[in-house]
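Study this fold:
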Amino acid sequence: MTTSSALPEQAGRSCHAVINPFHSTHYFAPELGEEMAKAGIENRSAGYFACRGAAMGAVGPGTITATFYNFKHELVARHVPQVWTHATPQAVLDARLRAADATLRRLLGPEAVASPEMAEAAELALRATEGCSRRARPLYAAHADLPVPDAPHLAYWHAATLLREHRGDGHLSALLDAGLDGLEALVTHTASGRGMSYQGVMATRGWSEEDWSAAQERLRGRGLLGAEGELTEAGVQLRKDLERATDRLDRAPYEHLGADGVARLTELATGFTTAVMEAGAFPATLFGK
């Protein structure tokens, strides 16, 4: 899609910021745990590794650690590949889609799910994904091979998933280039006030207090973190550079959609994400310092 107006520099980032939470709602919903349990997976971490990794097939722990990046490998290896003895990847994908369907219907209500605005959001987001690239983006590429659901709210959720994983894969390239390992990336993001809270990280990523402290010391040695755990001027600049690099690597889908389309998608996505957040989609302690 082409438009007469140029795409603003941070338009893709702004659009992603309101699309990504829509995808993420199911990770924190009781419906996902219920569907995973029906499939034979009762552990929460195992369910997350399985449902996000299933598009890649019955992969081993190394692949999950590599593509998810900020989980401790020992936590991953505790559940993968054993999780595939309980449910096949296809069974997990089916359960995940059912969970997403039930979650969005509960959070949004039947009118929003069936609204013309939802169908428009799905059409715009799917059009944006036409500009995505599979090269060096394993999570995106795997999900791009999945069929698009028929229901508009699930088609939009699917497109949101593709856009999220496309940006995420590019972000990992930026982290590697910046010399940040998975935990150092978490520490700096948390210190910025924009990432997961310390409590959220410790509850989900498998790291210990000793691991966290060691990562802080490594970052202090590079002049990126202060004595009290705050970002230094260099640390703040590094986080800005990371976002700019990620924006550059993720610009293609939004350029493909065009400035007018991105503006409209951002408007629609803001409405739907605001609605799910106001409905309590995310734990209050998940984000922020």
Notes: The first helix runs from residue 11 to 24. The chain has a mean pLDDT of 96. Residues 132 and 253 are 5 Å apart (CA to CA).
